[in-house]
Specification:
It is built from nine helices and eight strands. By secondary structure, it is of the alpha/beta class. The mean pLDDT is 97. The structure holds pyridoxal-5'-phosphate (PLP).
Length: 234
Amino acid sequence: MREQELKDNLISVEERVAAACKRAGRNRDEVTLIAVSKTKPVSDLQVIYDQGMRSFGENKVQELTEKIPEMPNDIDWHLIGHLQRNKVKYIVDKVKLIHSVDSYRLAEEINIQAKKHGVIVPILIEVNAANETTKFGVKLEEAKQLCQEISHLDAVHIMGLMTIAPNVVVPEENRGIFHKIKDLSVDIANENIDNVDMRILSMGMTNDFEVAIEEGATHVRVGTAIFGERNYNL
Ligand SMILES: *Cc1c(COP(=O)(O)O)cnc(C)c1O
């Protein structure tokens, strides 16, 4: 039965998160598990919600804005996918965190919309750690500069970095990448830039979240291991 399957999946992911925290000598409450619910029906989200989950991640603005009114209002919604400037206005006051800011122009638009809605918007800088041409995100060596530029926008607040690691066969292969992102966040934190925090590291997905936690992730974005495979042809 679907409900039991989802409950079992969540328990198993929770156990793996807890075990990774333990191996790394970290407290479980240092890591936020985000249930990535893209393509999944709200009935699935509700099952996971009823198990206590309050952090959900979506990668499309339209899907996010459709799901929000269908779900209880104490959820932290995370926008984890690429964001187009013309869609910022629909979500700016509805999300807990935008994980995918990779240009000044996008941050500028978020700043404008944030002011219109009277909010301050927490964001992460997306870093394309492996320099993959298929991925969004700034290069490692460009991240600090972008943080400096965005720091002057007073209605956005940089909370840290996000990365999508390569799709590898063995999760261990991504350890070096996660380590580099952690190093970069320490490096940027040491600059003590006004209005820039480096307390969040959003990295690790179904395939590699345990390694990411061992390397310092504070937020892991897990879809498939909780909700099962996605079918994009529905
Ligand atoms: C889909 C998605 C995830 C979750 O991927 P899984 O491998 O299913 O866990 C995480 N982060 C981003 C940005 C995504 O788009």
